[in-house]
Structure formats: C-alpha cells, structure tokens
Amino acid sequence: MWSLFHKLGSPRPFYEISDRLLPILGCLTVIFLSVGTIWALGFAPPDYQQGESVRIMYVHVPSAIVAQSSYMIMAIAGAVFLIWRIKIADIALQCAAPIGASLTLLALATGAIWGKPTWGAWWVWDARLTSTLILFFLFIGVIVLRSAKEGSEAVGRATATLAVVGLVNLPVIKFSVDWWFTLHQSSSFSLTEKPSMPVEMWLPLVVMVAGFYLFFFYVWIFSVRTEILKREYRSQWVRFIHDV
Description:
The chain is mostly helical.
C-alpha cells in the first residue's frame, strides 16, 4: 500500500494508471446519473407534504454531500503536500477546488429553489446555509490564492494551509442542525442508519449520490492529468506521449 501511495505520487505512474481508469469511471458516471435521474424524476413518489418539489432533493442532497467530500479530499491533498512535498498532491488540491466550488454553488442554488416553496423564502441566514456559503468562499479562496503565482512552492504551501484550516467548517455544516435551532431539516440520508424516508425515495437518492461521486472523480482525475501535462511538458515521457 505504501509503495502504491508513492507510485501514485509520481506524475508519470499516475498518468498511466489513470489512463486505464478514466474510461471505466466515465461509463459508470453516465450509467448511474442516467438511471438515477430517470428513476428520481419519473418513478420515485412525491412527498406527502412537499409534493413534487421534493424531487429537487435528488440534485441538492448529492451535490451538498459530494461538495463537502471534495473539500475533505482537497484538504487531505493539502496535508500530504505540506508534510511530504509530493508534487501530485499540490496538483490534486488545485484541481479539486473548482469542482468543489461548482458543486457547492449547485447545492446553494437548488437549496434556494427548494426553500422557496418550503420556507416561503429563497434564502435565510440559517446555520447550515451560512456554513455552506462559507464553504463556497473557502473554495474560492483556494482558487484565487493558488492562481496568484502558479507553480510557486510558497503559494502552494499557503494554499494547502488554507485548505487544511478550512476543515473546521465541515463539522459545523454537519452538526449545525443539532447544535442550533435552524429551519433546515436534520439529515435524512445515511448509508449506515435506517433511512427516515420510504425506500422508494431512498434508493434513487443513493444512485444519484453514487453518480455525483463518480462524476467528481472523473472530472477531478481528468483535470489532474491535464495539469500534469502542463507542468511536465518538458519531460521526455510527455514528449513521447505526444509523439505517439
């Protein structure tokens, strides 16, 4: 496992391994998102209270979950870069930030659309909504800081530090509905506990969450590969790939 970790930490082995992995991820992403979308919009039952508007859940919940996971992945990459100075970790951090920011923005937008018929308002300064907005700004901060001087190790360390420090916001998002009185409902989705919703609604949600994870990893790996080629364009192995 340790040797595999070091192998993936080198640009060329990562590029070669991901070249075989990417088509599989792409196919699985299309399958899961297609099946999940058709199931959620065409066959899942409406909620007895919220009616058809509950179908926003099938985009809102997966985007929120994967956005938080993407920040965790970004922060872990930042910690790896700070401790071991592994170049691929800096690239992984840089490439995860735009995807995480997009997913967080999608979660905020769909939450606002869902909140209008549910709460009667597009936005309230609810603890979970506010902490999720902070998550979005953390992603933006990482993007802006990393682009200040591309390739600089000092900027890479500063970006990694910001990503790691920002981890304190994830427990706030997770437990905000338990710590404070909020309009946002408590978590209704878990893979380790009995679902609080009918299985006819829970199963398509599981498929959509899996599809969003697959989408994240596909786009993330693709972005990492592109960034590797940009940074290693002078390397002999990159020239060999272009010649082939």
